[in-house]
Design a protein that fits this description.
Strand order of the largest sheet: 6-5-7-8-9-10-11
CATH class of the largest domain: Alpha Beta
Structural class: alpha/beta
CATH superfamily of the largest domain: ANL, N-terminal domain
Number of strands: 21
Largest sheet: 7 strands, mixed
CATH architecture of the largest domain: 3-Layer(aba) Sandwich
Strand content: 25-35%
Helix content: 25-40%
Distance between the termini: 48 Å
Shape: globular
CATH topology of the largest domain: Rossmann fold
Number of helices: 12
């Protein structure tokens, strides 16, 4: 099932191109209209229009614990998995955020996160439960979002850090009236502390940092009563009724103050991955806790958690391991940086070398030397970038996570092209 066309993309055409490998495919169901000339497609919308309502005697009520939602992970490591949710694992997340953020029917939601994915979908469900007004933005840009906030008097915005950065970098940000904004929530990826502070200085509304994922719903967030300066750079504390543990590789709780893998338990944790017993065995502990793959540390006595990094993103340079975020956080304070990502690229001697992927702000001219001069004294020498690649944009998922494996593939492609030029 797909759309006939969305944002100019021919989805039935994509499916037709895959049909040689799909011998059991009988037809393509499009949710909107289908052309009569396309004999391999049927229209769900036209079918519903021409079909009488199902008699009450034939209707079947679903149990609240049945699977009703299947969605795929973002694939930041190149291996998306199908996540299963019931009504009872979906609605608790909406109710928790409504309760803790004092969201009411009078709030106006701006949703530009894809509603077909997890966070955009949960926001839409939350608004429907409340009866709140929703303003949908199909194609995000910083300017388009700011214009809608002003015109529609938006009060509630949930966003990935990349989108907040885009709004902050609009050259005439100050001319927009954003006074209606009550709440801005950032999540989906770690937000640089400097971006948080810039947002707090220049935009209206209380800024909340949230942590969660498709598999867990909302797991932690900062609170309205928190002092921003004390919690900036953390993902807040665990949501009520949810559980949080920090585990070592053997599944044992680490001592307080030490980093460990964040594990989650509670009503919004998913039912498992579809038809993937290996992934389920790896993801859940013997006593049923879901291992997120993110590494964190308890940052203070209040229980606020700070993300250290993701286990699969660790760069291993000659046996010395570190998380890219350590370097990225510092570089986001540099005036020429719009977006940045550090990745490891293959090296015969060290295993990996540090590569800096950079989107300069405003097309600024940048050099590796100036960034290393900026970083010295702030990070260890072995964490300094040894190579720099300039990009016009970084490959973000629709929810704002950097797809580092695509950066690695792009750099491999660039290296092959250079090798061919040298050989030719």
């Amino acid at each position: 099932m797909c759309s006939q066309s969305f944002k100019g993309f021919d989805y039935p055409g994509m499916v037709r191109a895959l049909t040689p490998g799909l011998p059991h495919l009988r037809f393509i169901c499009v949710v909107d209209g289908a052309s009569e000339s396309e004999r391999d497609t049927v229209s769900l919308a036209l079918g519903l229009d021409g079909t009488a309502p199902l008699p009450a005697s034939e209707r079947v009520a679903m149990d609240a614990n049945e699977v009703f939602r299947m969605a795929f992970t973002s694939g930041t490591t190149g291996n998306p998995k199908c996540v299963l949710h019931s009504f009872n694992t979906t609605l608790p997340a909406c109710r928790a955020l409504t309760r803790d953020m004092n969201v009411t029917a009078q709030d106006v939601f701006l949703i530009y996160l894809p509603v077909g994915l997890n966070w955009g979908y949960l926001l839409l469900v939350q608004a429907l439960i409340l009866g709140a007004r929703v303003v949908l933005l199909d194609r995000f840009s910083g300017r388009a979002a700011l214009e809608l906030i002003e015109r529609e008097k938006v009060t509630f915005v949930c966003s990935a850090p990349a989108s907040i950065i885009a709004m902050l970098n609009e050259p005439d940000l100050e001319r927009y009236n954003l006074s209606s904004m009550r709440l801005v929530i950032t999540g989906g990826a770690s937000c640089p502390v400097e971006t948080l502070r810039d947002c707090q200085r220049r935009m209206s509304g209380h800024l909340i940092e949230l942590y969660g994922m498709l598999e867990t719903g909302y797991h932690t967030y900062t609170r309205l009563a928190d002092d921003p300066e004390k919690v900036n750079g953390t993902i807040g504390r665990c949501v009520e009724d949810m559980g949080l543990r920090l585990l070592d590789p053997a599944g044992t709780d680490v001592p307080r103050g030490e980093q460990g893998e964040i594990a989650c338990d509670g009503p919004s944790v998913h039912l498992g991955y579809y038809n993937n017993p290996q992934a389920n065995a790896e993801a859940f502990t013997a006593d049923g806790w879901f291992r997120t793959g993110d590494l964190g540390v308890i940052a203070d006595e209040a229980g606020n958690v700070r993300i250290v990094g993701r286990s699969k993103e660790i760069i291993n340079r000659g046996g010395k391991k570190f998380f890219p975020r350590e370097v990225e956080e510092v570089l986001y304070t540099h005036p020429k940086v719009l977006h940045v990502a550090m990745i490891g690229v293959a090296d015969a001697r060290l295993g990996e070398r540090n590569c800096l992927c950079i989107v300069p702000k405003g097309g600024a001219q940048v050099t590796l030397e100036e960034f290393n001069d900026f970083l010295r004294g702030q990070v260890a020498t072995y964490k300094l970038p040894e190579r720099m690649e300039i990009f016009s944009e970084l490959p973000f998922t629709p929810t704002g996570k950097i797809q580092r494996f695509l950066l690695q593939k792009e750099i491999e492609t660039r290296d092959r092209a250079v090798a061919r030029l040298v050989q030719g």
